[in-house]
From TrEMBL:
This is Uncharacterized protein. Keywords: Signal. It comes from the Eukaryota. GO terms for biological process: proteolysis; secondary metabolic process.
Protein backbone atom coordinates (compact mmCIF):
# COMPACT_ATOMS: atom_id res chain seq x y z
CA UNK A 1 0.00 0.00 0.00
CA UNK A 2 1.30 3.44 -1.00
CA UNK A 3 2.03 5.85 1.81
CA UNK A 4 -0.37 8.82 1.97
CA UNK A 5 0.94 11.97 0.34
CA UNK A 6 1.87 14.93 2.60
CA UNK A 7 -1.05 17.00 1.30
CA UNK A 8 -3.45 14.16 2.20
CA UNK A 9 -2.03 14.01 5.72
CA UNK A 10 -2.38 17.78 6.09
CA UNK A 11 -5.96 17.67 4.86
CA UNK A 12 -6.83 14.83 7.25
CA UNK A 13 -5.25 16.68 10.17
CA UNK A 14 -7.14 19.82 9.20
CA UNK A 15 -10.45 17.94 9.20
CA UNK A 16 -9.60 16.44 12.59
CA UNK A 17 -8.72 19.88 13.96
CA UNK A 18 -11.94 21.43 12.64
CA UNK A 19 -13.98 18.58 14.11
CA UNK A 20 -12.26 19.06 17.47
CA UNK A 21 -12.90 22.80 17.40
CA UNK A 22 -16.55 22.19 16.52
CA UNK A 23 -16.92 19.67 19.34
CA UNK A 24 -15.28 22.02 21.86
CA UNK A 25 -17.43 24.95 20.76
CA UNK A 26 -20.57 22.84 21.12
CA UNK A 27 -19.49 21.88 24.61
CA UNK A 28 -18.51 25.44 25.49
CA UNK A 29 -21.96 26.82 24.68
CA UNK A 30 -24.99 24.82 23.70
CA UNK A 31 -28.57 26.01 23.77
CA UNK A 32 -31.98 24.74 22.73
CA UNK A 33 -35.47 26.17 22.54
CA UNK A 34 -38.08 24.60 24.80
CA UNK A 35 -41.56 24.74 23.31
CA UNK A 36 -43.36 22.26 25.57
CA UNK A 37 -42.95 21.30 29.22
CA UNK A 38 -44.41 18.26 30.98
CA UNK A 39 -47.14 19.38 33.35
CA UNK A 40 -48.11 22.41 31.25
CA UNK A 41 -50.99 22.09 28.82
CA UNK A 42 -50.17 23.13 25.28
CA UNK A 43 -47.18 25.03 23.87
CA UNK A 44 -45.47 27.60 26.08
CA UNK A 45 -46.85 31.11 25.39
CA UNK A 46 -43.38 32.60 25.89
CA UNK A 47 -39.90 31.83 24.56
CA UNK A 48 -37.76 29.61 26.80
CA UNK A 49 -34.20 28.58 26.05
CA UNK A 50 -32.00 26.30 28.14
CA UNK A 51 -28.37 25.45 27.71
CA UNK A 52 -24.83 25.22 29.03
CA UNK A 53 -21.89 27.62 28.91
CA UNK A 54 -18.41 26.26 29.58
CA UNK A 55 -16.21 28.48 31.74
CA UNK A 56 -12.98 28.37 33.71
CA UNK A 57 -9.81 26.48 32.81
CA UNK A 58 -10.42 24.09 29.90
CA UNK A 59 -14.13 24.91 30.34
CA UNK A 60 -14.38 22.16 32.93
CA UNK A 61 -17.21 24.08 34.63
CA UNK A 62 -20.45 23.67 32.69
CA UNK A 63 -23.02 26.26 33.79
CA UNK A 64 -26.69 25.50 33.16
CA UNK A 65 -29.14 28.32 32.52
CA UNK A 66 -32.77 29.10 31.68
CA UNK A 67 -33.36 32.11 29.45
CA UNK A 68 -36.84 33.61 29.16
CA UNK A 69 -37.27 36.23 26.48
CA UNK A 70 -39.25 39.35 27.37
CA UNK A 71 -42.91 39.04 26.48
CA UNK A 72 -43.09 42.72 25.45
CA UNK A 73 -40.15 44.18 23.53
CA UNK A 74 -37.20 41.80 23.85
CA UNK A 75 -34.88 43.89 21.66
CA UNK A 76 -35.38 47.01 23.80
CA UNK A 77 -36.32 45.69 27.26
CA UNK A 78 -33.60 45.24 29.91
CA UNK A 79 -31.62 42.01 30.23
CA UNK A 80 -31.34 40.65 33.78
CA UNK A 81 -28.96 37.96 35.00
CA UNK A 82 -30.59 36.37 38.06
CA UNK A 83 -28.89 34.33 40.80
CA UNK A 84 -30.63 32.56 43.68
CA UNK A 85 -29.00 32.49 47.13
CA UNK A 86 -27.74 29.66 49.26
CA UNK A 87 -25.02 29.44 48.15
CA UNK A 88 -26.08 26.37 46.21
CA UNK A 89 -29.77 27.04 45.51
CA UNK A 90 -30.82 26.54 41.90
CA UNK A 91 -32.00 29.55 39.93
CA UNK A 92 -35.02 27.40 39.11
CA UNK A 93 -36.29 28.63 42.49
CA UNK A 94 -36.28 32.19 41.19
CA UNK A 95 -37.93 31.12 37.96
CA UNK A 96 -40.71 28.96 39.39
CA UNK A 97 -41.38 30.45 42.84
CA UNK A 98 -40.59 34.13 42.45
CA UNK A 99 -40.27 36.12 39.23
CA UNK A 100 -40.57 33.69 36.30
CA UNK A 101 -43.52 33.00 33.98
CA UNK A 102 -44.54 29.67 35.55
CA UNK A 103 -45.36 28.30 38.96
CA UNK A 104 -46.59 25.00 40.35
CA UNK A 105 -50.26 24.56 41.11
CA UNK A 106 -50.19 24.65 44.90
CA UNK A 107 -51.65 21.31 45.89
CA UNK A 108 -50.04 18.53 47.86
CA UNK A 109 -48.19 15.88 45.89
CA UNK A 110 -50.57 13.10 44.84
CA UNK A 111 -48.21 10.78 42.99
CA UNK A 112 -48.60 12.36 39.55
CA UNK A 113 -46.38 14.90 37.82
CA UNK A 114 -46.93 18.37 39.35
CA UNK A 115 -48.92 20.80 37.21
CA UNK A 116 -47.57 24.12 35.93
CA UNK A 117 -49.59 27.33 35.57
CA UNK A 118 -48.85 30.78 34.18
CA UNK A 119 -47.70 33.54 36.51
CA UNK A 120 -49.57 36.72 35.48
CA UNK A 121 -47.06 38.88 37.39
CA UNK A 122 -43.87 37.49 35.86
CA UNK A 123 -40.99 39.94 35.58
CA UNK A 124 -40.43 38.56 32.08
CA UNK A 125 -43.33 40.71 30.91
CA UNK A 126 -40.94 43.67 31.12
CA UNK A 127 -37.46 42.13 30.96
CA UNK A 128 -35.38 39.36 29.40
CA UNK A 129 -34.10 37.17 32.24
CA UNK A 130 -31.27 34.61 32.36
CA UNK A 131 -31.66 32.35 35.40
CA UNK A 132 -28.21 30.87 36.11
CA UNK A 133 -27.26 27.85 38.24
CA UNK A 134 -24.18 29.08 40.14
CA UNK A 135 -21.93 28.14 41.88
CA UNK A 136 -20.82 25.00 40.04
CA UNK A 137 -22.71 21.96 41.36
CA UNK A 138 -25.90 23.99 41.80
CA UNK A 139 -28.99 22.75 39.98
CA UNK A 140 -27.94 21.19 36.67
CA UNK A 141 -24.53 22.89 36.52
CA UNK A 142 -21.65 20.45 36.87
CA UNK A 143 -17.87 20.08 36.87
CA UNK A 144 -15.93 17.69 34.65
CA UNK A 145 -13.09 17.33 37.18
CA UNK A 146 -12.86 17.28 40.97
CA UNK A 147 -10.66 20.37 40.86
CA UNK A 148 -13.24 22.29 38.84
CA UNK A 149 -15.90 21.39 41.42
CA UNK A 150 -14.11 23.54 44.03
CA UNK A 151 -15.52 27.04 44.20
CA UNK A 152 -15.60 30.23 46.25
CA UNK A 153 -17.27 33.64 46.26
CA UNK A 154 -14.64 35.19 43.99
CA UNK A 155 -14.57 32.22 41.61
CA UNK A 156 -18.35 32.36 41.31
CA UNK A 157 -18.14 36.04 40.38
CA UNK A 158 -15.44 35.52 37.76
CA UNK A 159 -17.37 32.59 36.30
CA UNK A 160 -20.57 34.63 36.15
CA UNK A 161 -18.72 37.33 34.21
CA UNK A 162 -17.22 34.78 31.80
CA UNK A 163 -20.61 33.12 31.42
CA UNK A 164 -22.29 36.42 30.56
CA UNK A 165 -19.71 37.43 27.96
CA UNK A 166 -19.88 34.05 26.23
CA UNK A 167 -23.69 34.07 26.34
CA UNK A 168 -23.85 37.56 24.84
CA UNK A 169 -21.32 36.61 22.20
CA UNK A 170 -23.73 33.86 21.13
CA UNK A 171 -26.73 36.21 21.46
CA UNK A 172 -25.37 39.50 20.06
CA UNK A 173 -28.86 40.94 19.61
CA UNK A 174 -28.91 41.61 23.40
CA UNK A 175 -25.50 43.30 23.76
CA UNK A 176 -26.96 46.81 23.55
CA UNK A 177 -29.89 46.13 25.92
CA UNK A 178 -29.70 47.80 29.35
CA UNK A 179 -28.21 45.15 31.64
CA UNK A 180 -28.90 44.53 35.32
CA UNK A 181 -27.77 41.76 37.62
CA UNK A 182 -30.09 40.61 40.37
CA UNK A 183 -30.56 38.08 43.13
CA UNK A 184 -31.68 37.57 46.68
CA UNK A 185 -30.48 36.27 50.04
CA UNK A 186 -26.81 35.12 49.81
CA UNK A 187 -26.58 36.83 46.42
CA UNK A 188 -26.23 40.03 48.42
CA UNK A 189 -22.58 39.00 48.74
CA UNK A 190 -21.93 37.99 45.14
CA UNK A 191 -24.11 40.29 43.00
CA UNK A 192 -22.25 43.54 43.89
CA UNK A 193 -18.92 41.81 43.23
CA UNK A 194 -20.10 40.53 39.85
CA UNK A 195 -21.28 44.03 38.95
CA UNK A 196 -17.83 45.39 39.80
CA UNK A 197 -16.09 42.63 37.80
CA UNK A 198 -18.28 43.47 34.79
CA UNK A 199 -17.54 47.18 35.18
CA UNK A 200 -13.81 46.53 35.47
CA UNK A 201 -13.97 44.40 32.34
CA UNK A 202 -15.65 47.21 30.44
CA UNK A 203 -13.00 49.68 31.58
CA UNK A 204 -10.05 47.40 30.85
CA UNK A 205 -10.24 47.89 27.11
CA UNK A 206 -9.33 44.28 26.37
CA UNK A 207 -12.81 42.82 25.90
CA UNK A 208 -14.45 42.30 22.51
CA UNK A 209 -17.45 44.44 23.53
CA UNK A 210 -18.76 46.35 26.53
CA UNK A 211 -21.66 45.04 28.58
CA UNK A 212 -24.30 47.76 28.94
CA UNK A 213 -24.36 47.56 32.74
CA UNK A 214 -26.87 49.96 34.31
CA UNK A 215 -27.18 48.65 37.86
CA UNK A 216 -28.26 45.83 40.14
CA UNK A 217 -31.24 44.52 42.09
CA UNK A 218 -31.14 42.77 45.48
CA UNK A 219 -33.87 41.29 47.66
CA UNK A 220 -33.39 40.69 51.41
CA UNK A 221 -29.64 40.56 50.73
CA UNK A 222 -27.02 39.13 53.04
CA UNK A 223 -24.49 41.94 53.26
CA UNK A 224 -22.41 42.20 56.44
CA UNK A 225 -21.52 40.17 59.57
CA UNK A 226 -23.74 42.05 62.06
CA UNK A 227 -27.06 40.90 60.57
CA UNK A 228 -27.80 38.49 63.45
CA UNK A 229 -27.87 41.39 65.92
CA UNK A 230 -30.60 43.08 63.90
CA UNK A 231 -32.52 39.80 63.70
CA UNK A 232 -32.86 39.92 67.48
CA UNK A 233 -33.90 43.57 67.31
CA UNK A 234 -36.47 42.71 64.62
CA UNK A 235 -37.84 39.81 66.67
CA UNK A 236 -38.21 41.96 69.75
CA UNK A 237 -39.93 44.71 67.78
CA UNK A 238 -42.38 42.20 66.29
CA UNK A 239 -43.31 40.90 69.74
CA UNK A 240 -41.74 37.50 69.12
CA UNK A 241 -39.37 37.66 72.08
CA UNK A 242 -39.89 39.25 75.47
CA UNK A 243 -37.99 42.06 77.15
CA UNK A 244 -36.72 39.65 79.81
CA UNK A 245 -35.63 36.65 77.68
CA UNK A 246 -34.55 38.36 74.45
CA UNK A 247 -34.29 35.01 72.69
CA UNK A 248 -36.49 33.37 70.05
CA UNK A 249 -37.77 29.90 69.31
CA UNK A 250 -36.62 27.58 66.53
CA UNK A 251 -40.19 26.54 65.71
CA UNK A 252 -40.88 29.79 63.88
CA UNK A 253 -40.91 30.18 60.12
CA UNK A 254 -38.00 32.61 59.82
CA UNK A 255 -38.57 33.16 56.09
CA UNK A 256 -41.96 34.68 56.93
CA UNK A 257 -42.89 34.99 60.58
CA UNK A 258 -46.66 34.89 59.95
CA UNK A 259 -46.54 31.66 57.91
CA UNK A 260 -46.91 28.16 59.34
CA UNK A 261 -43.70 26.46 60.46
CA UNK A 262 -42.85 23.41 58.36
CA UNK A 263 -40.91 20.21 59.01
CA UNK A 264 -37.27 20.44 57.94
CA UNK A 265 -37.89 18.51 54.72
CA UNK A 266 -39.80 21.49 53.36
CA UNK A 267 -37.59 24.26 54.71
CA UNK A 268 -36.36 26.82 52.15
CA UNK A 269 -32.92 27.12 53.75
CA UNK A 270 -30.31 24.76 52.29
CA UNK A 271 -28.81 23.61 55.59
CA UNK A 272 -32.26 22.75 56.93
CA UNK A 273 -33.56 20.97 53.86
CA UNK A 274 -32.66 17.51 55.10
CA UNK A 275 -31.11 16.20 58.28
CA UNK A 276 -28.14 13.89 58.43
CA UNK A 277 -25.40 13.09 55.94
CA UNK A 278 -27.20 10.61 53.71
CA UNK A 279 -26.75 10.80 49.97
CA UNK A 280 -28.93 13.09 47.89
CA UNK A 281 -30.50 10.05 46.25
CA UNK A 282 -31.52 8.62 49.63
CA UNK A 283 -33.00 11.95 50.66
CA UNK A 284 -35.00 12.21 47.46
CA UNK A 285 -36.29 8.66 47.86
CA UNK A 286 -37.57 9.60 51.33
CA UNK A 287 -39.32 12.62 49.88
CA UNK A 288 -40.72 10.60 46.96
CA UNK A 289 -42.05 7.83 49.19
CA UNK A 290 -44.23 10.09 51.33
CA UNK A 291 -47.84 9.02 51.11
CA UNK A 292 -50.16 11.40 49.25
CA UNK A 293 -52.21 13.51 51.60
CA UNK A 294 -56.00 13.14 51.51
CA UNK A 295 -56.17 16.94 51.62
CA UNK A 296 -55.36 18.90 48.47
CA UNK A 297 -54.57 22.27 50.06
CA UNK A 298 -51.07 23.03 51.33
CA UNK A 299 -50.78 23.32 55.08
CA UNK A 300 -47.60 25.28 54.62
CA UNK A 301 -46.44 27.45 51.70
CA UNK A 302 -43.01 25.90 51.50
CA UNK A 303 -44.47 22.43 50.96
CA UNK A 304 -44.58 23.61 47.36
CA UNK A 305 -40.78 23.29 47.28
CA UNK A 306 -41.21 19.52 47.43
CA UNK A 307 -43.05 19.63 44.10
CA UNK A 308 -39.89 20.80 42.35
CA UNK A 309 -38.10 17.58 43.31
CA UNK A 310 -40.79 15.38 41.81
CA UNK A 311 -40.92 17.49 38.66
CA UNK A 312 -37.21 18.07 38.05
CA UNK A 313 -36.25 14.44 38.64
CA UNK A 314 -38.76 13.14 36.10
CA UNK A 315 -37.00 11.86 32.99
CA UNK A 316 -39.45 13.51 30.60
CA UNK A 317 -38.76 16.89 32.24
CA UNK A 318 -35.00 16.49 31.91
CA UNK A 319 -35.39 15.62 28.26
CA UNK A 320 -37.63 18.63 27.67
CA UNK A 321 -35.08 20.91 29.36
CA UNK A 322 -32.24 19.34 27.31
CA UNK A 323 -30.27 18.33 30.40
CA UNK A 324 -27.18 16.36 29.39
CA UNK A 325 -27.59 12.69 30.18
CA UNK A 326 -25.29 11.44 32.90
CA UNK A 327 -24.17 14.94 33.88
CA UNK A 328 -26.17 15.05 37.12
CA UNK A 329 -27.72 12.58 39.53
CA UNK A 330 -30.63 13.63 41.70
CA UNK A 331 -31.59 17.28 41.26
CA UNK A 332 -31.91 19.16 44.56
CA UNK A 333 -33.24 22.65 44.96
CA UNK A 334 -30.49 23.70 47.39
CA UNK A 335 -27.26 21.70 47.39
CA UNK A 336 -25.82 21.81 50.90
CA UNK A 337 -22.85 19.60 50.08
CA UNK A 338 -20.93 21.87 47.71
CA UNK A 339 -17.17 22.27 48.21
CA UNK A 340 -17.66 26.02 48.43
CA UNK A 341 -15.69 28.63 50.38
CA UNK A 342 -17.50 31.72 51.63
CA UNK A 343 -14.57 34.12 51.55
CA UNK A 344 -16.32 37.52 51.50
CA UNK A 345 -18.22 38.53 54.62
CA UNK A 346 -18.96 42.16 53.87
CA UNK A 347 -20.10 43.47 50.48
CA UNK A 348 -20.56 47.10 51.53
CA UNK A 349 -17.25 48.25 49.96
CA UNK A 350 -18.51 47.00 46.60
CA UNK A 351 -21.70 49.05 46.96
CA UNK A 352 -19.51 52.11 47.57
CA UNK A 353 -17.37 51.42 44.51
CA UNK A 354 -20.43 50.90 42.30
CA UNK A 355 -22.00 54.10 43.64
CA UNK A 356 -18.88 56.06 42.67
CA UNK A 357 -19.29 54.76 39.14
CA UNK A 358 -22.90 55.96 38.98
CA UNK A 359 -24.75 52.64 38.82
CA UNK A 360 -28.36 52.45 39.96
CA UNK A 361 -29.50 49.94 42.58
CA UNK A 362 -32.79 48.69 43.95
CA UNK A 363 -32.62 47.07 47.39
CA UNK A 364 -35.92 45.63 48.62
CA UNK A 365 -36.87 43.83 51.83
CA UNK A 366 -39.88 41.70 52.57
CA UNK A 367 -40.73 43.15 55.98
CA UNK A 368 -41.73 39.85 57.61
CA UNK A 369 -38.43 38.09 56.93
CA UNK A 370 -36.33 37.19 59.97
CA UNK A 371 -33.44 35.59 58.04
CA UNK A 372 -32.18 38.90 56.65
CA UNK A 373 -34.44 41.40 58.39
CA UNK A 374 -35.23 44.84 57.02
CA UNK A 375 -33.64 46.68 60.03
CA UNK A 376 -30.25 45.17 59.13
CA UNK A 377 -30.59 46.27 55.49
CA UNK A 378 -31.67 49.75 56.60
CA UNK A 379 -28.66 49.90 58.89
CA UNK A 380 -25.94 49.13 56.34
CA UNK A 381 -27.52 51.44 53.75
CA UNK A 382 -27.70 54.24 56.32
CA UNK A 383 -24.07 53.59 57.27
CA UNK A 384 -22.97 54.23 53.68
CA UNK A 385 -23.73 57.85 54.62
CA UNK A 386 -25.24 59.09 51.37
CA UNK A 387 -27.66 62.00 51.53
CA UNK A 388 -31.39 61.36 51.12
CA UNK A 389 -33.05 62.74 47.99
CA UNK A 390 -36.51 61.22 48.47
CA UNK A 391 -37.51 60.92 52.12
CA UNK A 392 -39.15 57.89 53.74
CA UNK A 393 -42.69 57.53 52.43
CA UNK A 394 -45.28 54.88 51.55
CA UNK A 395 -45.66 53.52 48.04
CA UNK A 396 -49.00 52.20 46.82
CA UNK A 397 -50.53 49.52 44.60
CA UNK A 398 -54.24 49.81 43.78
CA UNK A 399 -54.58 52.57 46.33
CA UNK A 400 -53.20 50.45 49.17
CA UNK A 401 -49.85 50.82 50.93
CA UNK A 402 -47.49 48.20 49.49
CA UNK A 403 -44.45 49.22 51.53
CA UNK A 404 -42.19 52.14 52.34
CA UNK A 405 -39.30 53.57 50.36
CA UNK A 406 -36.40 56.00 50.46
CA UNK A 407 -33.94 57.05 47.73
CA UNK A 408 -30.36 58.22 48.22
CA UNK A 409 -27.99 60.45 46.27
CA UNK A 410 -25.98 57.44 45.05
CA UNK A 411 -29.03 56.33 43.00
CA UNK A 412 -29.81 53.60 45.53
CA UNK A 413 -33.49 52.99 46.24
CA UNK A 414 -34.44 51.05 49.36
CA UNK A 415 -37.95 49.75 49.74
CA UNK A 416 -39.86 47.46 52.03
CA UNK A 417 -42.54 45.11 50.73
CA UNK A 418 -45.39 45.01 53.23
CA UNK A 419 -46.23 41.42 54.11
CA UNK A 420 -43.31 40.02 52.10
CA UNK A 421 -40.98 37.30 53.32
CA UNK A 422 -37.38 36.32 52.59
CA UNK A 423 -38.11 36.03 48.86
CA UNK A 424 -40.56 38.92 48.60
CA UNK A 425 -41.96 38.24 45.07
CA UNK A 426 -43.03 34.78 46.19
CA UNK A 427 -45.26 36.26 48.89
CA UNK A 428 -46.28 39.51 47.19
CA UNK A 429 -46.07 39.00 43.42
CA UNK A 430 -48.32 41.89 42.38
CA UNK A 431 -46.62 44.44 44.59
CA UNK A 432 -43.12 43.32 43.53
CA UNK A 433 -44.14 43.39 39.87
CA UNK A 434 -45.26 47.01 40.28
CA UNK A 435 -42.08 47.82 42.21
CA UNK A 436 -39.73 46.60 39.49
CA UNK A 437 -41.84 48.00 36.65
CA UNK A 438 -41.68 51.50 38.12
CA UNK A 439 -38.02 51.37 39.12
CA UNK A 440 -36.74 49.91 35.85
CA UNK A 441 -38.74 52.59 33.98
CA UNK A 442 -37.04 55.31 36.09
CA UNK A 443 -40.41 56.22 37.59
CA UNK A 444 -40.86 56.89 41.33
CA UNK A 445 -42.21 53.97 43.31
Amino acid sequence: MAAPRPEQLCFSLLLLLLASIHLCSRLALSHSLVKFLPGFQGPLPFELETGYVGVDESEDVQIFYYFVKSETKPRQDPLILWLTGGPGCSSFSGLIYEIGPLYFREVRYNGSLPTLELNPKSWTKMANIIFVDLPVGTGFSYARTSRAAQSSDLQLCDQAHEFLRKWLNAHPEYISNPFYIGGDSYSGITVPIIAQVISNGNEGGTEQFNINLKGYILGNPKTFPDEDNYRIQFSHGMGIISDELYEYTDTLNKAHILENYCPPVYSPKPLKLFNGRRSLDERFQELHSRKPSPHSALFCRVEAYALSYHWMNDQSVREALHVRKGSKGTWVRCNQGLPYESAIWDSRPYHVNLSRKGFRSLIYSGDHDMIVSFPSTQAWIRNLNYSIVDEWRPWNVHGQIAGYTRTYSNQMTFTTVKGGGHTAPEFKPEECYAMLNRWISHAPL
